[in-house]
Design a protein that fits this description.
By secondary structure, the protein is an alpha+beta fold. It is 15% helix and 42% strand. It has a 22-stranded antiparallel beta barrel. Strands 3-8-9-6-7 form a five-stranded mixed sheet. Strand 11 and strand 12 form a beta hairpin.
Length: 922
């Protein structure tokens, strides 16, 4: 803690000292220093169709991050983690034990949802992911953009527009817009080889040492095409990432008394599970009893009373009653477990889950090219291909559970969810000038797919015939966008820019079923169980569940192949009335084939109060169309309940049950946004201040409800459940309204003195999102009691409190001769865990009682040295002081597996990361 305070103090003094020193030198030698200091201010394109302007002259706040330069020194290597570290308004952390979300880190801007920020590449709309985030993480129920599919080494810079911009760019731009600008470098081959890992006492399930090893190779090559400015630039990136292990030590009972007897029989070549399929209907019952009598005597830790009870039981039913887990206390079962572990040469850590980052192999190819076809016109293309294979762990299947077939897995097993994520994108267009008009015609195609393979698992109902690996099906999203844009500048007042254009977008969402065994429950004859035939059981008579354990495959009934289209027209006029007054007005009309039309507008202005002091403000309406995924996604399973086969799961918005229950068709979310701020420059010391306050109200926000159980819905709804054979259902619906308010402050400073260049940057974001007004319950599910199902307490926490309301960063980059020194401190505000538990220990669990997870400061430091003009080396540490989130209270740890929360988004739970990076260019 002492070292932390020293680093923070040095960091703050460094910032202030450099500022003061710069002031003194400039007051003495203004002219001399101005020739040494680069006073060309960064320009931005995002947020205006009038072309580039300086950041501080923009009527809306835009951040610019130079990825090409910072990639040499930053510890992070993918886009999401880079932005999470350097942009306080941006949040994205690696998830764990959340199925496909483990390989796709949800990203949020200004505390709003992952689907409320629009991503552009070279100014063109990027397609979203195929994945619907349905697990218990921030952004639950949303569909975001897969930033991990784009290599950061292919980027020149990232622009982040922190303001509602749906009237300019269309759906999703409620929180803002991100533009990823690809490199245009020519004439050299550049690359880097990075190696790193987590050096922390908590590595390898808190036994220490090193895990999460990461090797990454990035290559970039560009060259000229012709002599009139044509070029191509191509990037290749390969990443090989090992998992991290952050579980504690499994402290629940693992083995029961029957497991011990079963193992003694196996050691003698007798597999008890082979003697029965349905324990309640087997001709071998007496043989099974005899074997249990025989092999129970070999369990040395059974006391005499238990041995006598076993030997005195002469029927299966009697033995079931004696050996079942409920006949023993937890302490007794843990005693059996500890003794059995010793007998089998195992430890409790052998039964840990894989908690931490997933294993990942990632390969990416991106290209950016432009060729002039005349003095005024050029054709261009860009796009890429990404193939990512990830493997994450599920919940351990213990041998004492009926979902584990111990005939094949006497020690249980840890199922693995493997995800193949394929991403394809290609844009092509022609742009140029005609009679003063700038014209751009383009077509952009993108496709993202998830294919699930479930390994090291089984369909328990198939017993010995079960495969160990299953194709569980997949998801695919495709998007094609055609844009035609016009803009022209007029020499009116101090300048007038007129822009207008149109867009056509086609979308397709496809769900592919898995193989039959991945979702089917089988009877004792190996046929699909119909509800009437005999089911296989475990020794205690519990039916063996079907489908691939940990992730059941998509069923044929879940298969979807749906399309939709939209058309849009926009107009954008920018007035420079005087050199001190800028006004930007935009309007946009869009029509969707599946829900109708929407009209939005925006008005923004910048007033130059003084040569270096600007005031800016903006107001807009916006919208987000329901994603096609949210309309058609459905995952259901069949359970045997009250002697009936009943469906449970997520039902699509166009399903029969949704219609009969009166669930309305999904419609667009609508927003109203306002912002006001100022920018202030002190050129003599290269110091810039910006501050912006904002407010966003979103109506009819789409959420994923909790499960509406048949027993808890009104009588009329129960009749619908009975008619359709449903026991529980959840839906996507426009259920809530929210308000978000916040403040962004950015301070930037740079100086040069005595051959040293220093860049200092401070940024802070404060935001609060809350649900307001009534829950929009509908149809037969209208009831005050059901409002907590529409929008549960957990869902409220994911929305309002699972991401930091305060986040700040203070960074310094010092360049001296061939060396670069980098220091950054990032403050992550407190968050709230979603679990409802007895936090204060009074024995009473209130409906909104949650654990608070404290604020932390993460320190990153790195040093880069350029040995020659072609070769350099970087050494660094992310999370220098090995800071972890607040530990979970025992009630949230799942038997000491989740030491840290997996339902919040701060900075992850991997701990200290050390790395080295070799940089080269030729």
């Amino acid at each position: 803690m002492k070292n932390k305070k020293i680093i923070l103090s040095v960091s703050a003094v460094f910032f202030l000292g450099a500022f003061t020193y710069g002031q003194e030198r400039d007051s003495i030698k203004i002219k001399k220093d101005s020739t040494k200091t680069n006073n060309v201010e960064e320009v931005v394109i995002l947020g205006s169709r009038a072309g580039a302007r300086s950041k501080t002259d923009s009527p809306v706040p835009v951040d610019v991050f130079n990825v090409k330069e910072s990639s040499i020194i930053l510890p992070q290597t993918n886009i999401g983690q880079i932005l999470n570290a350097v942009a306080p308004s941006f949040t994205s952390t690696i998830q764990t034990n959340s199925d496909g979300t483990d390989h796709l880190d949800p990203a949020q801007l200004r505390g709003l949802g992952p689907d409320q920020v629009l991503v552009l590449v070279n100014g063109k709309r990027r397609h979203t992911s195929a994945l619907v985030n349905v697990n218990g993480t921030p952004g639950r129920g949303t569909v975001g953009t897969d930033l991990n599919a784009i290599p950061s080494f292919a980027l020149n810079r990232i622009e982040v527009l922190r303001d509602g911009a749906a009237a300019q760019y269309g759906s999703d731009a409620i929180a803002g817009v991100m533009n990823l600008e690809l490199k245009r470098d020519t004439g050299k081959l550049a690359g880097q080889i990075s190696y790193g890992g987590n050096l922390t006492p908590t590595a390898n399930d808190h036994t220490g040492n090193f895990d999460g090893q990461n090797i990454q190779l990035d290559l970039n090559y560009g060259n000229k095409i012709g002599t009139k400015g044509g070029f191509f630039n191509i990037t290749w990136s390969s990443q090989f990432r090992n998992p991290t292990y952050r579980a504690g030590t499994e402290n629940a009972p693992i083995y029961n008394a029957y497991n011990a007897i079963e193992q003694r029989a196996l050691n003698d070549g007798v597999n008890l599970s082979s003697l029965f399929t349905d324990i309640g209907n087997t001709p071998n019952s007496q043989q099974i009893v005899s074997y249990i009598h025989q092999y129970a005597q070999n369990v040395s830790y059974f006391d005499q009373t238990l041995q006598n009870n076993i030997q005195g039981a002469n029927t299966i039913a009697d033995l079931q009653n004696i050996l079942k887990s409920s006949s023993f206390t937890r302490d007794q079962l843990n005693y059996f477990t500890d003794q059995e572990l010793a007998y089998r040469g195992q430890t409790r850590k052998d039964f840990n889950m894989q908690v931490g980052q997933s294993k990942l192999n990632n390969h990416q190819l991106f290209i950016n090219a432009e060729v002039p076809v005349s003095d005024d016109w050029k054709v261009y293309t860009f796009g890429g291909y990404s193939l990512r294979h990830g493997t994450s762990g599920g919940f351990y299947r213990r041998p004492s559970e009926n979902r584990t077939f111990t005939g094949l897995y006497p020690n249980g097993y840890l199922p693995q969810i493997s995800t193949d994520i394929q991403d394809i994108s290609l844009a092509a267009g022609i742009k140029g000038k005609w009679q003063g008009w700038h014209i751009d015609l383009s077509n952009t195609f993108g496709q993202n797919s998830f294919t699930y393979t479930i390994g090291n698992t089984g369909n328990t109902s198939l017993r010995f015939d079960s495969p160990k690996e299953f194709n569980a099906g997949g998801l695919r999203f495709s998007q094609n966008t055609i844009n035609l844009d016009f803009s022209k500048k007029y020499d009116v007042w101090e300048g007038l820019n007129v822009a207008f254009g149109g867009e056509h977008r086609f979308e397709n969402f496809k769900m592919t079923p898995g193989e039959e065994a991945s979702y089917t429950t089988y009877d004792v004859f190996g046929n699909a169980w119909t509800g009437n035939s005999q089911r296989p059981t475990d020794f205690f008579g519990l039916p063996l569940p079907g489908g691939s354990q940990v992730f059941s495959g998509f069923k044929p009934e879940n298969a979807v192949n749906k399309n939709r289209q939209s058309v849009a027209a926009y107009a954008d006029v920018e007035f420079n009335f005087t050199n001190w007054l800028l006004v930007d007005a935009a309007a946009r009309y869009e029509n969707y084939s599946d829900f109708g039309s929407t009209f939005n507008y925006k008005l923004a202005s910048r007033i130059k109060v003084a040569p270096n002091f600007n005031v800016r403000f903006a107001g807009s309406t916006g919208f987000r169309a329901p994603s096609i995924h949210q309309i058609y996604y459905n995952v259901t399973s069949t359970l045997f309940t009250n002697n009936q086969l009943l469906e449970v799961g997520t039902f699509s918005n166009d399903s029969q049950i949704a219609g009969l229950l009166g669930m309305p068709k999904l419609k667009q979310e609508t927003s109203k946004s306002g912002s006001v701020g100022f920018t202030y420059k002190i050129p003599s010391v290269n110091l810039t201040f910006t501050a912006d306050g904002y407010f966003t109200k979103i109506d009819n926000r789409i959420i994923l409800t909790d499960q509406f159980l048949k027993a808890s819905v009104p009588g009329d709804a129960q009749l619908v459940y009975d008619k359709l054979g449903v026991n529980a259902a959840q839906f996507f619906t426009n259920a809530i309204d929210t308000e978000t308010k916040g403040v962004d402050v950015v301070i930037s400073h740079n100086a040069r003195f005595s051959g040293v260049k220093l860049d200092n940057n401070f940024a802070i974001n404060l935001n609060q999102t809350k649900q307001v007004g009534d829950i929009h319950s509908s149809g037969l599910l209208q009831s005050p009691e059901l409002e907590k199902v529409y929008f549960s307490e957990k869902s409220r926490v994911y929305l309002e409190e699972a991401v930091p309301r305060v986040k700040a960063s203070l960074s310094h980059t010092l360049t001296w001769k061939n060396a670069n020194f980098y220091l950054r401190n990032t403050y992550f505000g407190k968050v709230t865990g979603a679990d409802i538990i007895d936090v204060n220990g009074d024995g009473i669990i209130d409906f909104n009682e949650h654990q608070k997870i404290g604020d932390k400061i993460i320190t990153d430091i790195s040093v880069a040295y350029q040995f020659t003009k072609n070769v350099g080396l970087t050494l660094g540490v992310n999370n220098l002081f090995d800071i972890y989130p607040t530990k979970n209270l025992p009630a949230s740890t799942n038997n000491d597996q989740f030491i840290y929360s997996r339902s919040t988004s701060q900075f992850g739970q991997n701990g200290r990361y050390v790395f080295t990076r070799l940089n080269f260019n030729f």
